[in-house]
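Researcher: I'd like a candidate sequence for this fold, 136 residues long. If you have to choose between options at a position, lean toward the conservative one.
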């Protein structure tokens, strides 16, 4: 099946609603990274794949940097500015967070699939950069 020739029409309002709903989780999570730094770091260090949190140096640095990216890219996605790049930046943050915190633990199976669903929304925006053009 050749997907490049397939297009669909979607409601502009539905795109805005999806964009707002996907962006808000990152904006809210960024505040948790800033104001509950110790708690977030302890989650990394107690996770089975916590070593991923050490790839940028200290887990504190990783948490602060990911919080900054989530806040800036989340706001960008929220307001519809550079949505493709915002989505790509959020994907770059979401994947290591998901691998570090949710993978390999039965207790986080629900949040794992929540992150997979959010990843789907981000992929949607990264693959459809012109969705912010209101044509109807």
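Model: Candidate sequence:
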């Amino acid at each position: 099946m050749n997907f490049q020739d397939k297009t669909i029409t979607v409601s502009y309002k539905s795109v805005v609603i999806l964009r707002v709903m996907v962006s808000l989780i990152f904006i809210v999570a960024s505040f948790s990274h800033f104001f509950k730094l110790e708690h977030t770091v302890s989650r990394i260090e107690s996770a089975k794949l916590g070593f991923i949190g050490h790839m940028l140096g200290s887990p504190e640095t990783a948490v602060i940097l990911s919080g900054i990216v989530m806040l800036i890219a989340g706001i960008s996605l929220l307001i519809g500015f550079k949505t493709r790049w915002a989505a790509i930046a959020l994907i770059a943050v979401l994947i290591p967070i998901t691998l570090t915190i949710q993978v390999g633990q039965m207790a986080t199976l629900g949040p794992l699939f929540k992150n997979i669903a959010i990843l789907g929304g981000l992929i949607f925006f990264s693959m459809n950069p012109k969705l912010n053009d209101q044509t109807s």
